[in-house]
Amino acid sequence: MQKQIVVDIDDSGETRIETKGFKGAVCLEESAFLKSLLGKELSQYLTPMFYQKDKVEIRKHINLCG
């Protein structure tokens, strides 16, 4: 999935920032500049993608020679 930051501003001026395609807390880091520009954060909703981690393959080597 392509990484995106979507900014939605409704008729009353309320702004919503949504990140797509990011795994883990990196979404907060990538959207922080918008939060600082737009002002006070009223609420935060973390999607299931926030709690996902990239797959890490761990290989264990067994000493076969002694």
Beta-strand proportion: 15-25%
The helix-and-strand class reads alpha+beta
In N-to-C order, the SSE pattern is EEH
Number of strands: 2
This entry's quaternary arrangement is single chain
Q: What strand order characterises the main sheet?
A: 1-2
Largest sheet: number of strands, sense, barrel closure: 2 strands, antiparallel
Note the gap between the termini: 47 Å
- Structural shape: elongated
Share of helix among residues? Answer: 10-25%
Given as residue ranges, the uncertain stretches (5+ residues, pLDDT < 50) are none
What's the rounded overall pLDDT mean? 85
The helix count comes to 1
Rg over alpha carbons: 19 Å
Descriptors:
alpha+beta, 2 strands
Would you write up a description of this structure?
- With 66 residues, the chain is of the alpha+beta class.
- The chain has one helix spanning 26-38, and strands spanning 4-9, 15-20.
- The protein is elongated and about 70 Å long.
- The N and C termini lie far apart (47 Å).
- The mean pLDDT is 85.
List the helices and strands and how they pair.
Blueprint (H helix, E strand, L loop, with lengths): L3 E6 L5 E6 L5 H13 L28
Antiparallel strand pairs: 1-2
Give a brief rundown of this model.
Helix content is 20%, strand content 18%.
